[in-house]
Sequence to fold (468 residues):
Amino acid sequence: MAAVENPTEYTVSQRNLTTQLPDIGKPRIVIIGGGFAGIQMVKHLRMKDFQVVMLDRHNYHTFQPLLYQVATAGLEPDSIAGPLRKVFDNEKNFFFRMARVERIDAEQQKVYTSIGEISYDYLVVAVGTQTNYFGNQKIQQLAFPLKQVPQALNLRSHILQNFEKAVTSDSEEEVDRLTNFVIVGGGPTGVELAGAMGELKKYVLPRDYPELDFKVMKVYLVEGVDRLLPSMSEKAGKRAEKDLTQRFDTIVKLNTLVKDYNGYEVTLGNGEKLISETLIWAAGVQGVIIPGLDKATVEKGRYVVNEINRVNGYDNVFAIGDVAAMYTEEYPRGHPQVAPVAMQQGEQLGKNLSNLLREKETKPFSYLDKGSMATIGRNRAVADFPGNIRFGGWFAWLSWMFVHLLFLVSFRQKIITLGNWVWNYFTYDRGTRLIIRPFNYRRAIDDRNDKLEDNHRNDEQKETHEVS
Ligand SMILES: Cc1cc2nc3c(=O)[nH]c(=O)nc-3n(C[C@H](O)[C@H](O)[C@H](O)COP(=O)(O)OP(=O)(O)OC[C@H]3O[C@@H](n4cnc5c(N)ncnc54)[C@H](O)[C@@H]3O)c2cc1C
Fold:
């Protein structure tokens, strides 16, 4: 298959990373991305049959479902992020390189990265997603995304800095602007974040800032469709709305789109304006598409794969997790972009690659949906399980905590997270409301503007701005 022409120069290093790896006479699997899918894949490979090289732009795995707790001072980053080298430190055939992959050359069987090029026998693309702003550049420049640890830390600093400023302000308009928060997207991330902001407003911040009247602090949750949690049952959506509005006075705006934002004022589709210096974008994601593979392999920002996650048209290139679109009868638009799908695809591909090498039969991927949950502040959550089992309240909240602890990568993370949760629960406090790294919102906007201009490096990436 022909590689996509790429007219732009890449800032890739010319170093040959292959020469730095020992020659062990085994096929090399290069995995791009140490997320849920990439890690599970390695865990289920027969490691003695391969040389495994994992590349990730960060040296740590991020447990994205709990990012919102870092952003709202509930957890420290090391509770949800763990070093990738540590995960496989007992495997002698495993190598990790911190590198950003910029391009794939399937004909030469190489990937080009920020630290050099590396050749592969099998390539596994497990790069996940990035925030989707649906082509709205202004919002992309000004809004807060929540996909990575540094973004969560920026948001944490920004929220706390706003209150530090508000307490010294004598302008009502400025206090409004600083203490109003607009969250866009009523899916699990938006709902959980709104609940956490509600808890800050109700229990934590009034003790820190007794001079401020917290009745003026508003948390808006804006959703484009007619209910919250559209990926869950109607009952769960209704219950989440009721809990948020009744317990935390969250202002939920359904059937409402955000049209514009200037850094101070959010304009909604119906013309209404919300004053706020904080617009948090939790309204959608799109796959990270790495230039180089045939354009025909990408649909709606995801690589189209067959039943064993092989990218269409390539023998030895696979995609797993959020970035893969496997169309099946049950999932005609591809599987949901959630952690269990990524983990199960990783596991299955790990086993299948071992089978392929031994010329054994491979097994098609089949998703086992174990249900979904979302928490709405302390003591409350909603849960939908297969077989129409739906419940909410305290038991759902307990189940939510248990499941999240279970899936954290290391034992250390489980212990720290549990410790923090117990502390927060009994003290109604958030121990990590620290402005360690002050966040300069205006300077960040300038930087983002510069990056946006640089970012349009090729046609392929522009196309992924489509709604996925
Ligand atoms: C805020 C938030 C909350 C969520 N909550 C839930 C939830 O409650 N339940 C649930 O099931 N799912 C949730 N999800 C979705 C879940 O996190 C994803 O489905 C899951 O992370 C997908 O796993 P993955 O391995 O495909 O990708 P990821 O986990 O995103 O991993 C991709 C990896 O690729 C790396 N990478 C990307 N580009 C490059 C590159 N060019 N070069 C090198 N490395 C690269 C990244 O650094 C990352 O480590 C949430 C997501 C977010 C953002």
Q: What stands out?
A: Residues 32-38, 55-58, 62, 64-65, 67, 100-101, 126-128, 146-147, 188-189, 288, 290, 321-323, 337-340, 342 surround flavin-adenine dinucleotide (CB under 6 Å). The two ends are 25 Å apart (CA to CA). Residues 137-283+379-448 form a domain with the FAD/NAD(P)-binding domain fold (CATH 3.50.50.100).
